[in-house]
Structure formats: structure tokens, C-alpha cells
From TrEMBL:
GO molecular function list: glycosyltransferase activity
Name of the protein in question: Uncharacterized protein
Amino acid sequence: MPTWFCHRNVFERVEMGFHEGGAGVPEDLIFFYKHLNLGGMLQRVDNSLMVYRYNPNATTFSIKEETIWETRLNQFQQDIMSLPAWSRFSIYGAGKLGRRFFRSLRADVQNQVQQFCDIDPKKVQQKRYEPYPKPKKFKIPICSTL
């Protein structure tokens, strides 16, 4: 499982350090994004530096998938979408996850989506994705009361 570590100076540079919001808060992800926002660098280390011990009561299991999704999405919309190169972009994956990603975006960011890309022939054959259902048009007959 990938993990990361940092020097104490990096930790002290990030304002408020870890967000100690208690159970259900992905404080390591929030810290990681703050580090990147400050121009922090990353470096890959291929050696095993730590061995995790499974604990079914670990706080990590209290973090909901939706919370992580929203944290990632907010980071993307605030920091990536503000870059000029991202005035238009494509979403790779026209399946459930790609469509969910699109629907989760703010309306202004949705307008920047140029296309979906996929390799699945069934998805490509659909030609387009219509994220919102068309309004139903009812055909109600008019009868004479005479």
C-alpha cells in the first residue's frame, strides 16, 4: 500500500498541520493537498519504509468514501481548474465513475468538459452522454364532453 512521509520542517510549514477533526476526517489527504498547494515536492521511494498492522478499529475505517470524493473534487476544482491550460478538458472514462465525476462538478466546470473518452465500444457507440433527463412531454388527449 503506498504511503508518504515528510520532514518535520514540511509538517511545520503547513498551517495548522494535521486537521484533527476527529473520526471521519481524512486529515492526511487534507495535509497532503495543503503541502502541494504550498509548492511542496514529492519524491518516490521504492523501499518498504513501514509495515502496517491491520486493526479493525482503526480510525481510517470511519472515513466515508463520499468524504474522500468531495475532498478530492474540491481540490481539483479549486487548484487544477484555475489553471489556464484547463479551460477545456476531457474525462477519461464514460462509465459510472466518469459520469459521477461529471455530475459532481460545479456547473461552471461542467461547461469546460469537452468530451468523454473511453475504449469500451459499447460506450463509444452511444455517441454522447446526456447527464440530465429530458423533460417528459405528456400527450394528453382532449375529449368532448357533449
